[in-house]
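Hi all, posting the design record for the shared folder.

TITLE: backbone redesign
STEP: 1 of 1
STRUCTURE INPUT:
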């Protein structure tokens, strides 16, 4: 699942967008994880232009959600 590209200087905005879409579906996500025997991943892909990177601060809500569904949180950084 993907929430798409959103320009922002704070990834907490994207975290809240993600939670608004899938936050109420943690039971379904846990079930899929167990049925398929797969790992769940929350991946932030960050594009940095001219040295202007975002604030990388995760709120308690996204950390709690990742814990509930057994997901890892990763970051990919690309500097242009």
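Okay, here is what came back for every position:
SEQUENCE:
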């Amino acid at each position: 699942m993907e929430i798409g590209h959103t320009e922002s200087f704070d990834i907490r905005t994207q975290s809240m967008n993600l939670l608004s879409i899938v936050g109420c579906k943690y039971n379904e996500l846990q079930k899929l994880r167990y049925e398929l025997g797969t790992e769940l991943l929350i991946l932030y892909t960050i594009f940095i232009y001219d040295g202007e990177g975002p604030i990388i601060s995760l709120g308690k809500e996204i950390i709690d959600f990742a814990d509930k569904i057994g997901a890892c949180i990763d970051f990919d950084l690309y500097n242009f």
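COMMENT: The mean pLDDT is 87.
Let me know if anyone wants the other runs.
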